[in-house]
Every structure is written in C-alpha cells, then in structure tokens.
Amino acid sequence: MIKTFTGIFALYFATLAVSAQDIKWEYSWSGDAKPKASVSPFLFGKTWAYTVELDDGGILAKNIAQPLFAEYKFTDAPPGVKSGKEMHFVGNVAVMVCNMAGGNNTILSWEDVKELISKGWDITNHSFWHTGIHWDKTKLLSPDQFKRELFWSQAVFSHYVYADKKAPLTFVYPSGDYNYKPFLKEFNLLAGSRCSGSSAASVFDPKFDPLELCRSNLDGLGGDKNMDPLGQFPKDIKEGTLHIDFSHGIDKKDTVNYKAWQERLKTISDKYGANGADNVWCAPTSALVSYALSAKSAKVEAAAGKVTLSLPANAIESRLTILLEGIPESVKLEAPKDGLIYRQGDKAWITTPVLGKPNAIPKPRVKIGYEGNYAPEIKLEKPMKVAAVRLQQSGGFAKGYVPKISFLLKDGGKKEFEVERIHKWTGFGPRWGGWCLYPLIPDEEAVLASGVEIAADPAFKKVEVWVIDE
Fold this sequence. Notes:
Blueprint lengths: L2 E7 L2 E7 L3 E7 L7 E4 L8 E8 L4 H10 L3 E3 L10 E3 L3 E4 L14 H9 L3 E4 L17 H20 L7 E3 L18 E4 L18 E5 L24 E6 L8 H17 L7 E3 L2 H13 L1 E5 L2 E7 L8 E5 L14 E5 L2 E5 L14 E8 L3 E19 L9 E5 L4 E3 L2 H8 L4 E9 L7 E8 L5 E9 L2
Parallel strand pairs: 5-8, 5-13, 5-14, 8-9, 10-11, 11-12, 12-13
Antiparallel strand pairs: 1-2, 2-3, 3-16, 4-17, 6-7, 15-16, 17-19, 18-19, 20-26, 21-24, 21-25, 21-26, 22-23, 22-25
C-alpha cells in the first residue's frame, strides 16, 4: 500500500510517496523543461562542511561555546547566490550518560542539552561509563562490556533527550578506543569519531568511512601545545571536505583559549561563511552524517516537467538539496512546502523537507518503571520485567559497605544481582555526582519482579528501575 501526501502551490506540486520498497519525493513544474538533476554533496548546495565536537558534557559548552559560535554565520543559499537566510555556527556535545543529572553542576543537565538542541546543536553519544583502553591489551573490554555501554547509553539518551522517539546516531570513541567500532551498527550508531580516525576527509573519496571520522585535537588552543589558532585546519579546503574540530571545552571569555577560538571561528566565517565565499555548511555531526548517507543512497531522475528523488525505505531522516541545471529562467518555480529554492541563471537548488525515518531506538525497548528517592526496598506497581537499576551516587561509601541488589520475584523468592561483575568493569568507589548502572540486558534475560532491594548507604540519592516496555 502506498500513502501519498500532496501539496499544490502556484504552478508546481511536490508529492511524497512511501512504500515498503522506497521513499519517493517529486517536484513538478508547468511545461516540458527537462533539466539535468543531481543531489548536492552538502545541504543548501554548499561545497564543504564544518563542525566541532566538545567532549564529556561540560557546562561551558552551553554557557561559553554556544553563544560564541552564534556570533559567526553562513547562509542557506548556495555559494555565489545572494539573499540567503543567515544561520549560526553550531556544534555537538559528546556526553557520557553516567554524569548526566548526577548532581554535579559543572556538567550539563538534560534540560541544558535540550536547550542546546533547540539552538541547532545536537548530542553525540560518548558511552555510558567512558570505559575502554585500546593501548593496553590486558585491559581491553569484552564484547559484553561494549554492548552494555552502547545499549544503555542509547536507551537513556533516547528517553531523556528525544522523548523515546529516536536514538542518537553518532558516537565519539571513549579515549579513542576504536574497538567499539564492530558493535556500533548493532545499536543504530552510524558514525564514530576520534582524533586518529582513518577515514578520508572527503565525502567523494571511496575511503570515506563514517565509522572512522577523524578529528583535529584542539585541547588548549592558544596555549603552548596548540599556539596557532588555525592549527590543523586545511590551508586549501577542497570540495567534499568534512572537517571536525575537537576539544574538551572552551574556556571563559578573555582567556587565551577563548581568544584563540574567536580567531579560528572568525577566520573560517570571514573566508567561507556569510561574509566570504559562503560555501560552508556548519551543522552537528549527526546532520552531516545523515545527509552524507542519504545523498549516497539517493537516486534522482529528471523528466519533462518534474524531478523524482528516491531513497531506500530505511533512510535516516534528512533534508536533501537537488541541483537542477539547464532549466530556463522563464520556467516558474516555487519553494516546496517545508523546503527552499534558490536560482541563478539556468540553475536551481531545491532543498526538500525532511525525508526518511528517525534513527531507531535499539531493541528491546525499555522504559522507567519506577523512579524516586533512594529507599532500601522499591515496590513496583505490578510485576514487571526488570532490565536494569540505576542509582544516583554522591560521595563515597561508608567503611565496610558491601553492595547488594536483589530482585523480589513474583513467587516470593529473590534473585541476587552479581554486582561484582559490573564493578570489575566500571570500578567501585566514590562518585561526586553521577549514576551507577546495574544492567541485566543485553547480555542476560530481564527478571520478572515485583520489587528491588538495594543495600543501604548514604551515598545513594535517587533510584531508577528500568523495565522492558511491553
């Protein structure tokens, strides 16, 4: 069955058809003009893309970096086409779930993250616990440990950031541990970045690999190790370049680091932004990657009076820009609903509405079955399949404390959780604002339980019981 949604505007209409096989979007005009059609390598017809990833979720991303980036602009018009709408430079925050809403005011809160997203930024998954050391073969994570990190970071992000409607699609390798790579796609992570990534810099290069995106390390920019504000930035930007800068944060105003970032961003903006060539698209990594993947899989066909864009049924949501060449200026074209159009001579750049699906949340789907202040015994409203327990911890444990978690079974019995298995992976000790995770899935079956017992300690502040969403 095909569902068709049609809007008619002036002398053109756009049609979106969705089937089990593919997604089709059509743009039509009056007359029999048949231009050449292609998908632009970047949104708005830009020739290269830029973003910044700020790791570990520090509050200065919101208080310092976002306002700084907003001072620099590009437009939504193709290079050389005037009157485009100005858009702010934006970036990404790479966040570790264990620190979020943990009571540490130096870390972004969930509300902070959602505010950044409302201003054009996005999050990048940086794991749950930030475990993984690739340079010490005696400390490599096991497949089960990788999967726990990825499943639970995706699940918690999906709930708190995207209201259980989608999952993050990009990942920053903790400590550059590329051994996560074989497991990313299983948990719907379509890109991974690190400072020593092996991907080619150009989306045109056959060796371009979204799972190996390379970043320029700008920690301490302006300081002794990174004195040049334009260090590691290409002197000659080639078409197709996707450039990612990285830092753990940008310091407060009037510092050497802040001024170096000002110079870097101003130089990029003046040369390639709204006041220069205007050929850069600045967007979060998620937008850059979803566009690149959609553009690669898209098929575009021009016929007399229309152009048709086709995408696979599983394409991740993205807007796309179609370039029409050889369409007479006398042919009247209107902007598609929720899209854009720019023209110059016999060329037209048509930007579609969002096409494709939100990035899916990994299965099994989970939800919070109980949340509240810590108590040694948690009773659920009804028996549920418990998937994990999350505990907010602030401070160290009492001397001699022995952690213990037990699930209260429907028949009155108990099943004890093997906490030592988790502590061997994550460590056990004081946390100054963060969340401990005690998961059953994905490497064990969920337990049908009517409640949970947790050995008492003053360090525990809040508790969440995550259950299978049935």
